[in-house]
């Protein structure tokens, strides 16, 4: 299992976050989960 901690500035889109995560994962990575602060997870 790979856990990626996500800290983002206000206004960052889901697509931008996922693209950044994809850019650093090793090829064929499976079992990936994202972690962030609750207040960030509640942003649109």
From TrEMBL:
Protein name: Cobalamin biosynthesis protein CbiG
Organism: Modestobacter versicolor
